[in-house]
UniProtKB/TrEMBL annotation:
Transmembrane segments: none annotated. Residues 33-52 bind DNA. It comes from Pseudomonas hefeiensis. The keyword DNA-binding applies. The keyword DNA-binding applies. This is TetR/AcrR family transcriptional regulator. Keywords: DNA-binding. It holds the Pfam family TetR_N. It comes from the Bacteria. Residues 10-70 form the HTH tetR-type domain.
Amino acid sequence: MTVPLQRLTERKRESILQAAIAEFRSSGFEITSMDKIAATAGVSKRTVYNHFPSKEALFAEILNRLWNSITAEQDMAYSPEQPLREQLRKLLQTKLHMLADNNLLDLARIAIAATIHSPERAQDMVARMGQREEGLTVWIRQAQADGRLKAVDPEFAAQQMHGLIKTFAFWPQISMGQPCLTQDEQIQVIESALDMFLARYQV
């Protein structure tokens, strides 16, 4: 049975992306070459360039995947009938589940390492992030419109909430190699963050 050409193309593209992630992780962005990525992916250098015109474009696609993962909770819609705490708890549980994914943590390490020495690359990453409004920001805005949260910049409040979470469930794992939170630790972090957020902003 012949595999459709489109599926083969998608497989090659995915192989290239996975090879690039592996090489960026082991050698860093600057040292990694398109030749090495091609060899690791088991494809020709020409095939790599057919999918990605440059190493920067390939890296940008990896950053896009990272951002898509980080904003995965975006589908959580605000409900005027449900208690705020219950809705926020579900959002934070989704966030913590995502932050416990080793593949995502690897992507985040690659992104951070590659942008530390390149302000231009860091600015591009921030610009890409700004193009997509996060789920928690949207949720906060909707809860404000419903009169259940105080008037405050939704992006500011969302960043505060993320800070409360990532202090325990992202930065220690990224910067110091600490293990992901246990289930009990996740519950403790979530409930504490909810206490602080709702005490400040709930009407």
